[in-house]
Amino acid sequence: MAKTLYVGNLPWSTTDTSLADAFRPHGTVISSRIITDKETGRSRGFGFVEVEDDDAENMVTAMNGNDFGGRQIVVNEAKPRQG
Do residues 53 and 3 lie in contact, with contact meaning Cβ atoms separated by under 8 Å? Predict the structure, then answer.
């Protein structure tokens, strides 16, 4: 099984790869993606990391509040989409 983590307050320059690399020391990263604005293509400052179920809690504990590119990131388990 996999869980999806929400990662907020990311620097604008964050890429899918750099986001995955930041989480990789704390467990298995399946995928990562930065959410971008549809019109400008610019990062919206948040993204999602899909991780192994067993690693999710450790990753939230290890990464929430950490400095990433000069910003204090917010990490928690993503809520399912509604609607």
Answer: yes
